[in-house]
Amino acid sequence: MTPQRILSAARALFAAHGYRATSMQSIADRVGITKAALYYHFDSKEEILHQLTLPLLDELEGALAEAEAQGGPEEVRWRAIEGYVEVHLRHRQTLTMLVKDMTLLVQAPVGDRFRAAIALANNLVAGPGSGLEERVRACQVVAGLADPVVLFRDVPADVLKGHILAGARALLGEPLSEVRPRGPARGRKGGRPAALTEEQVARVRDMYAAGHGAEEIAAAFEVSRATVYRCIKN
Hints:
70% of the residues lie in helices and 0% in strands. The chain contains 12 helices and no strands. It has helices spanning 2-17, 24-31, 35-41, 45-68, 73-90, 92-100, 110-126, 132-151, 157-172, 198-209, 214-221, 225-233. The protein is globular, with a radius of gyration of 19 Å.
């Protein structure tokens, strides 16, 4: 559990103070271990950054690949948009950390992978055979999917997702009725589950005891913070 505690502490510190302003000593202090013990688990701050960004990038690339494999261009477009938003909402703190220090977004390999993912998202939203107007509008839509995740960090994920998708529909000139639903909730890839199982509740409590914040846990299980607090209290 110590590596996960280190990553959780580093993520919070990077998001609050910035990557460059956070020292290895401050991460060790936050976890409650020595600096030598921290270096036993991670060789450098760069390695910690890599481990923090890897899940976000892997999931983002996976969501876009899944969208690209759909049938018609409209289905591809909306799967790409929804998948893009959902991944960023699950990794709010990591995204905040990256935006806090924008230079991280131009460094390889993080910057290269982000640019490639954004370019693919732009193409999927624009659709095949699109002209300049459609491509520009697609870029506007994709650019507007992640910023609200950072700017409105205290808004519950499901509420914010609805507003972001409504904004995308407005930019694309498509009414609500024309957007295909993702289907019934079935967990991480299909919307929020109606309730947590006993095993999930136990995992929520373990994560909270290990120092993970309620917002981070809520994003991991795709539930509200209120649900997390109920699990902790009961």
